[in-house]
Amino acid sequence: MIEILAGTAAGVALGVVSGILPGIHVNTLAGIMLASLALLLPLFGPFFLAAALFSALITHCFLDAIPSTFLGIPDADTAIAVLPAHSLCMEGKGEEAVRISALGSVTGLVLAIPLCAILLVTMPPFQSAIDWWSGIVLVAVVGFLLVRSESPAWGFVTFCVSGILGVFSFRYSYLAPSLLGEGAVLMPLLSGLFGISILLHSGKGAIPAQHFSGLDIRREGILKGTLLGGAAGLVVGWLPGLSNATANGVLASAVNYSRDRRGYLLATSAANTMNSMVGLAAFFAVERTRNGVVAALSVIETPPLTFLMVSGALAGLAAYLITLRLSGVAHHLEGLDRARLNILVIAFVAVVSFLSAGLFGIFLLVLATSVGCIPRLVNIPQVFCMGSIMVPVMLYSFGVGGI
Hints:
There is one protein chain. With 403 residues, the protein is mostly helical. It has helices spanning 2-20, 26-35, 37-44, 46-63, 65-70, 82-89, 94-122, 127-148, 152-171, 183-199, 219-238, 244-252, 261-286, 292-297, 305-326, 338-372, 374-378, 387-397.
């Protein structure tokens, strides 16, 4: 148990770093660990490494709200959620946005712990039927979004174009460094679609004064966001090929992220944490790996699920307190020139894209930014750019071989 607690503390520290730095994901840390396993395993032992990786994943779910809110740059977990979070920051409510995201992560974690125990017992017998339904779920979600759209034709075109880009990105992911593989393309892909393309149209002037006067969300909104986010996180955590970015798109069909920004932020944060916990349960129940961290756990001796759940819960508590503390960074951004800050952020993202995926990453970043500008030009929601994730998953689910 001491080894697991020490690993949890190390994982929280790693999760803080990966959460705060845009473009750095826990899957990157997992890839580095796999490459260094021969060195790390004798030094720290398998239980320490397992606890460190999983607690880093949970911590990252909390801290990644900070760059999304204040810099407007998403990672694979935040995607569409960057839009309402950054818009709240531009209204002087950045700290509130981060705190709502942290609250959603907590409620998702609390809901996930007992739910995972139920899933371990009930789901394995139905796994073969469940696998096939992931594509059907996404087709229904996209159809619902198109029907609700004011311009279904442009929404469909944007969805298809971004989907083709997503298929291209994953199919040629071998052009990125082998250490990260397919995960390397997510950073430039999503940063172009939902980050840089937004920053290019975000306007000029200084960042407004930031103030915090409490959370402007009712208890009913918290309950609704937790349940919707929990359901979405459960679906993407158990079904094959789905991800947090997919959950963002699924939730957009149930919660309008432009009218109910706070509810959407809470729901997506709950979904991200639920997905991480359910992904671990799926590994123990049906031996499926849902993310890079679980893939890394599959090659080492792992402690019992209950120990890792305790590690995740402790990491979540620590991450919640750290996130609340760091949310006050909003006050240090007041008065900064937005145009200069955006240039710095874009340059940083370009550098990280190059380091993670080489010249192919820069190429994807340019393409994704171009596609991400389409919704602004034709006045449709940015959510249709989620075709970049949804189309490859649909093709995979139906056995077409899109990725």
